[in-house]
């Protein structure tokens, strides 16, 4: 076990608290392993009625993974075979198995998605059976902004969002409020942050349903309900380039919002956008979460040998110049073969899902 994850039990509730508050509880490999070990131990433990997942500190549940370490691996490998042997590969392997474990967990799994929930944070919450957001929630799958592609089962979650909302969220990398997260299908219940201590106390004393009945309430109205009138037709297009064209053609009251979305997409990695759209479209037809995770593992390993992943991380979090030099530089330069290469089977595809 590790002191970066606090594992405890209280009157039949198994509590997993990510305990890396200075890093907004960003996940590393040892945290993922400890998390999975706790879930495995409680799965067949009749004394445990439900699992509660929270993040330490005031800033959020989880800001994702250690992308600087991923960049270091990306700079050190030259091909996919080498990428399969890296620390990033081992981290993703165990992280994606954890995501599948959460998605198939036999007991109520309550994730408190308060504050920042990004990337890997979505993976440990979005597949749970009881997903609670607050007015402080800021949720995102921001991968395309660093030349990466949504993972942790995010392609499955986003591909099942209503209309074009999932593709919109993935390609713009926009931050969603708690109300927006519910509208997109990434969360279920709204609890005011001030009520979370009482929610948890009731969860412990009386169970999940009682806690929701006593402390959950209507979410604030999400603007996404009305925005679907321009999001749905634009994001039904066959390519990111055509999506941008449709967005720039929106007129009237929706033009400003559509143009903002187009500008956001145009600034992202062209290859990451293209692979992301393909991955989401494939995930929509997947029979289960595991199928999506196998594909995501292939894509993640492929990204390690791309130009854009280390360059995107450099621009966003290392040099912080916010001026990545993408390659290919434009969507028009991205070829079908380049996109297809991300999805090629690996010598050691992801396996090991729990029965």
Question: How would you briefly describe this protein structure?
Answer:
By secondary structure, this protein is of the alpha/beta class. Helix content is 48%, strand content 11%.
Give a description of the structure:
- The protein is α/β, with parallel strands linked by helices and 355 residues long.
- The protein has one domain (5-341): 2-enoyl-CoA Hydratase, Chain A, domain 1 (Alpha-Beta Complex), CATH 3.90.226.10.
- It contains 17 helices and 9 strands.
- The strands form 2 sheets. It has a 6-stranded mixed beta sheet, with helices on both faces.
- Strand 1 (5-10) and strand 2 (13-18) form a beta hairpin.
- Helix 1 (29-43) runs parallel beside helix 4 (87-103) and helix 14 packs antiparallel against helix 15.
- The protein starts with a strand and ends in a 14-residue tail after the last helix.
- The relative contact order is 0.13.
- The model has no long low-confidence stretch (mean pLDDT 97).
> How confident overall, as mean pLDDT?
97
Percent range for β-strand residues: 5-15%
Integer count of domains: 1
For the secondary structure, the number of strands is 9
Low-confidence stretches: none
Briefly, what CATH class? Alpha Beta
Tally of contiguous helical segments: 17
Percent helix: 40-55%
Largest sheet: 6 strands, mixed
CATH architecture name: Alpha-Beta Complex
Shape: globular
Any idea of the CATH topology? Answer: 2-enoyl-CoA Hydratase, Chain A, domain 1
First-residue to last-residue Cα separation: 24 Å
User: Largest beta sheet: what is the strand line-up?
Assistant: 1-2-3-5-7-9
List the secondary-structure elements in sequence, H or E. Answer: EEHEEHHHEEHEEHHHEHHHHHHHHH
Q: How would you classify the helix and strand content by structural class?
A: alpha/beta
What is the gyration radius calculated from CA atoms? 20 Å
CATH superfamily: 2-enoyl-CoA Hydratase, Chain A, domain 1
């Amino acid at each position: 076990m590790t002191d970066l994850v606090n594992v405890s039990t209280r009157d039949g509730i198994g509590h997993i608290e990510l305990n890396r508050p200075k890093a907004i509880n960003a996940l590393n490999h040892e945290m993922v392993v400890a998390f999975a070990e706790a879930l495995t131990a409680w799965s067949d433990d009749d004394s445990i009625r439900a699992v509660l997942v929270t993040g330490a500190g005031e800033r959020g549940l989880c800001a994702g993974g250690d992308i600087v370490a991923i960049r270091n691996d990306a700079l050190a490998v030259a091909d996919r075979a080498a990428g399969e042997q890296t620390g990033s590969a081992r981290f993703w392997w165990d992280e994606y198995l954890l995501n599948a474990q959460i998605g198939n967990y036999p007991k109520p799994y309550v994730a408190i998605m308060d504050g920042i929930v990004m990337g890997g944070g979505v993976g440990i919450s979005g597949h749970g059976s009881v997903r609670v957001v607050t007015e402080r929630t800021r949720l995102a799958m921001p991968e395309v902004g660093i030349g990466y592609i949504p993972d942790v089962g995010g392609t499955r979650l986003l591909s099942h969002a209503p209309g074009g909302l999932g593709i919109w969220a993935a390609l713009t990398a926009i931050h969603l409020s708690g109300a927006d997260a519910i509208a997109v299908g990434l969360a279920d219940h709204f609890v005011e942050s001030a009520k979370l201590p009482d929610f948890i106390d009731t969860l412990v004393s009386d169970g999940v349903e009682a806690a929701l009945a006593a402390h959950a309430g209507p979410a604030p109205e999400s603007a996404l309900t009305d925005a679907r009138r321009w999001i749905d037709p634009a994001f039904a297009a066959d390519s990111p380039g055509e999506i941008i064209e449709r967005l720039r053609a929106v007129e009237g009251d929706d033009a400003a919002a559509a143009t903002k979305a187009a500008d956001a997409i145009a600034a992202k990695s062209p290859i990451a956008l293209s692979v992301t759209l393909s991955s989401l479209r494939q995930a929509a037809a997947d029979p289960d979460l595991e199928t999506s995770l196998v594909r995501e593992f292939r894509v993640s390993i492929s990204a390690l040998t791309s130009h854009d992943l280390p360059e995107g991380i450099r621009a966003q979090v290392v040099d912080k110049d916010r001026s990545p030099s993408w390659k290919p530089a434009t969507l028009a330069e991205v070829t079908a073969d380049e996109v297809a290469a991300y999805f090629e089977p690996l010598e050691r595809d992801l396996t090991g899902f729990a029965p």
